[in-house]
Write a structure and sequence with these properties.
This protein is α/β, with parallel strands linked by helices. Helices cover 32% and strands 22% of the residues. The chain has a single domain, classed as Alpha-Beta Complex (Spore Coat Polysaccharide Biosynthesis Protein SpsA, Chain A). Strands 1, 4, 5, 6, 7, 8, 9 and 10 form an eight-stranded mixed beta sheet that branches.
């Protein structure tokens, strides 16, 4: 994270603090090419020159011998898994408030987002300064979203049932919907069936 006197960077929060009930195993550790979902996401951000990375996880996962070391990534390790992605994100807000200008919110079950998409989202934020940048592929919005840090108080008040959707939908005028040709923004891997449907892309990892 940035020092108080530095220009505040854009960073990313990777959410991997949930129970993975539907998958039945930790999604962060699922294989993506030669690496795991979590390693692949971190590599994509680094390729996009976004290096202020914070992952929120829980003790049982962090202590798994398969958990990658990921040097240079900050961690928040919760005692217990959370019930929703928003509750996982809440734990990161104190750490990033005052240190980041904006931050991606990246669920670990979206490992196929291309580095070029992340870089383009960051460029649009830097040039246009919207409150929210959301990638859209075709007619659908996807993940991750990029959020100006001034919205942190609003995120704290959001409902866990609605999650970040409540913040994104509160004012369409403050959302920059960025058209991308990247189906990875739509590929959420939540169940064994999702995993089985991937076939070769699972072996290859994101472009």
């Amino acid at each position: 994270m940035a020092s108080p006197g530095d220009e505040k960077p854009t960073g990313a929060v990777i959410l991997t603090g949930g129970l993975s009930r539907r998958m039945g195993q930790p999604k962060a550790l699922l294989p993506l090419g030669k690496h795991s979902f979590l390693e692949g996401i971190v590599a994509s951000y680094r390729s996009a020159q976004i290096t202020s990375l914070l992952a929120v996880t829980h003790g049982a996962l962090k202590n798994d011998p398969r958990f990658p070391p990921l040097d240079g990534v900050d961690f928040i390790v919760l005692e217990q898994p959370t019930e929703s992605p928003l509750q996982t994100l809440w734990h990161a807000l104190d750490r990033i408030e005052g240190h980041l200008a904006a931050f991606f919110v990246h669920p670990v079950d979206h490992p196929f987002v291309r580095p070029a998409t992340l870089a383009e989202m960051a460029r649009v934020y830097a040039e246009e300064k919207p409150m929210i940048v959301q990638p859209r592929c075709g007619k659908s919005g996807g993940h991750p979203v990029l959020i100006d840090a001034s919205l942190i108080p609003e995120i704290r008040k959001a409902s866990p049932d609605q999650g970040l959707r409540e913040v994104v939908r509160a004012d369409p005028g403050r959302v920059r919907r960025l058209a991308v040709k990247d189906e990875g923004v739509l590929k959420g891997i939540n169940t064994p069936d999702d995993l089985a449907d991937l076939g070769d892309p699972l072996k290859q990892g994101p472009d």
